[in-house]
Protein 1
Amino acid sequence: MGGNDETRSLLRLNDHSRTGLEAALDRAVSLAAAWEAREMPRTLAGARVALIVEERGWRNPVAMALGARAMGAAIETLPQGLFGAEAPEDLGPYLANWFDALAVRAPDIVWLEALADAFPGPVLNLRTRANHPFEVLGDLAFLRSLGRGPAGLRVAVVAPRGNILASWAEAADALGIAVTQVFDADFHLDGPRGGLAATHDMEAIADADVIVTDCWPRHEPPRAFPAFRVTAAILDRCRDDVVFIPCPPVTRGEEVDAAAMRHPRQMAYRAKAFLMHVQLAFLEGALGRDGG
C-alpha cells in the first residue's frame, strides 16, 4: 500500500513547517535531559522499526538503535544490499508487513523517496549523499539546549558543496536561519537557494553565531584549500560566544587544525549527542507517540 504521508517522514528539512521542526527541537532537549537522568520515557513501546544502513557511518544508526530500544521499540537492523537489489516500490510493501517505521542511511535520495512513497509509515533519512538532515537538526537541538536559536541564528559553513551544506541550506529555508557558505567559489552549492549566501572570504565568519566545517573534496590534492582551514587562531578572533561544530569525521591538517579541536569553543562532542535525541523526537512524533 503506497501513498506515504510526507509530513510524517523526514527526507528533507524544508519539507516541514517551522512549527513542526521547532517542536522536534524542543522535544529533543527534553529527551536529552531524560537520557542523562537514565529515565527515558517508554513512548515507543510496541513500535517496530527497521534500521537500513546502506552507507558507511556509525553515529546516526547507533544512536537510533540504542535510543529507540531505551524508549521501548523493537528495532531490527536489516542486511546490507537492499539498495538496488529490489525495486523500492516492491520493498516498501514487503517491509510494511512487519514494520511501523523505517530509518534509512542510503546513497541515493531518489531511491529513498521512492521507498517512502511505497511505505505507508514514516521514513527517516539518516543520510544520503545529497543531504544529511538529522546531522543538522541535532546541531540545532544542541544549540536550542544552550538557549540559542534557531530564530536569528547566523551560521557559517566553511565547506565545499556536499550533503552537510545542502541540509544547512534546507534549514535556512525551513527555519529562517541565515546560512553562509564560505569556500572556494568553484565549490559553491549549485542552483538558487533562498536562505543561503556564499562567499570565498573567510572574514565572513567573524560575526557568526555558529561555525560548521565539513571535509574537503576527496578528489582534490590533500591540503589544497589552506585558506579555508579553521584554526585556533581564527577562533580566537571570532565572537566570544561563537559555537564551533566541526562535522565528523574531521581531518586535522585539512578543514581544521589540531589546536582548533582543543579550543574551548569547539563543542562537536557535546553537540553530536543530540543526534540521538532529535531522531527519537521525530520518530516519536511521526508514530503519534508524542510524549511532549
Protein 2
Amino acid sequence: MLKSLWHAGIAKDAVFLADYAINPLGLKSDAEITGVVERWLAQSAKVSDTLIIACNTLSIRYHQLYGSEGRLGRLTRVVSMADCFAAMVEQEADRIAGKNVLVIGTEFTASQSLYPEIVAQVCPSAHVSTFAATELERKIARFGAWEGATDATLTGALRRAMEVTEIAVLACTCFPLVRKDLEAVFPNVLFLDPGAYGAGLMPKQAGTTDNRLRVKVTGQEVSEASVIEFAESYLGVSICCI
C-alpha cells in the first residue's frame, strides 16, 4: 500500500504500525477485532490526520461498524482496504465481468460477505468465492522463507481452488509481497491487488519532500530490526522507529 502511494507522490511523511501483537488477527473474535479497530483509530489520531487501514480484516470490521460514512473523530480521512477493493472492482469491471473470481484472505475476511457483495453489485455476472489462507499470511508476515511451487503453505485446497480461478484478489496486505511467486505457480490466473488502487482515493499533494517513514512494532512475534530491515530494502528509504 505505502509503496503504491509513494509511487504516486502521496503519504510522503508516514507512520507504519506493524501490529504483531494481534497477529494473526484473522482468527480473532468480532469483539477482539473491534477492539483493534478502536485502538488504531485512537493511536493514529495522535500522529496523523489520515488513517489508511492497510488490513483487510480490520477494514471489513470498520465498514461493518461505521458504514460508508466511517468514524473520523480527530482524523480528517480514513481510507480502508474495503474502499480500495471497491475502487478496484469499479476500475476493473470489464475484466471481472463473467469471470471466476477468488478472494484470498484471512479466515475472517473469507467468512464475510462484504467483498463478494461489492463484486456482485458492479459485476453481477462474475462468480465469486473466497478462500482463507491464514498460514500463508502468517508465513509472509513473519518473513518466512518462500519455496515457490513446493511451498507447503500453498495447501492442496488452495491449489484446487486456483485451478478453476480466472482472477484472484490478494485480499490480505501481505500477499502482494509474493505476487510474482504466485504468478509463477499459477500462470493462468490474473492477480489483482486492492492496495494498488488506494492512491486514487487520496488527494494529490504538493511539494517535493523526500519520503520519510517511521515504524512502530508491537508484540514479540517479529523484531523491530527485522521489520525495519525489510522496509528499508523494499521501499528504498532510511527509517526511524517511534
Protein 3
Amino acid sequence: MSEISEAENTKTDNTKIEEKVNDINDETIETENAVSESNDSSESDEKKSKKEKKPKKEKKAKKDKEKDNLDENENISDTDKKKKSKKEEKKNPEDVNIVKDLLWLIVYIGSVILICFLIIKFVGTRSRVDGSSMNPTLHDGDNLWVDKLSYTFGDPKRFDIIIFNPNGNEKITYVKRIIGLPGETVSMDLDGKIYINGQLLNENYALDEPFLPSSIGILSGNNEIVLGDDEYFVLGDNRNNSMDSRRSDPGNVKRDYIIGKVVLRIYPFSKFGFVK
C-alpha cells in the first residue's frame, strides 16, 4: 500500500509539474501572441503614419515646388524688369531729348511756313519798287508791305496805291494809284488835269513839273474812257514817265488783277512809315 501511494503521489506530482509547464508554455504563447499583436499593431500604426505622412510630404513638396516656381517667376520677372531697365538705360535720355527737340523743331518750322503762307496768300506780302513812275511818293528800291486783307473784305478806294498784275500776268507787278472807280468816265486835258464824269478831280499827288501833252496817251483828242463794273483807272504819280491806264498796255485794271494795297514802306529804314 505504501508503494502504491508513493507511486500515485509521484504521478500526481508529475502531473502537477506538467500542468505548470503547460501553464508556463501557455503564458509564453500568450505573451508571444501579445508581442506579435503589438508588433502587428505597431507595424500597422507605422504604415498608417507613413501613409499619413506621405500625403503631407507630397503636399509639402508640392507647396515647395509652387513656391520655387513663384520664386523662379519672380526672378524671371525681376530679370525682365532689369532687362527693360537696362534697355531704357541704353536709350540715353539725351538721345530722347534730342528726338523730342527735333520733332518740336519740325513742328515749329512747319507751323511758321504755314503761317507765312497764309499771311502771304491772304493777309499781306512784300513788294519792291522798280523804277521812278511813282515819284515823289515812292522811289526806286523802296521795299513795301502790301495789305491783302483790306480787299478781301472791302473794295479798293480812290487814291489807294495798289500793286497789280498787268493784264493778269502774274510774273509782273506794277505799283500805281487808283484814280477812276468802276462805272466812272475818265478824261484828261492837255494840262494833265483829270475829270471824273465831267467833274474836275481835286488831287495833288502828281509830281510837281510841267505836264507833257505827249503823255496823255489814249486820252488825247478829248477821248474819254468808260470803266466797266470791275475796272479801275490807275496813274503813276510821275505823270510824264509812267506806264499806266493811259496806255493800252496795261490799260484799265480789272478787280481780279489787283493784289493788294500798299500801306507801309519798310525799307530804307530812314523812310520807314505809312504810305499815302
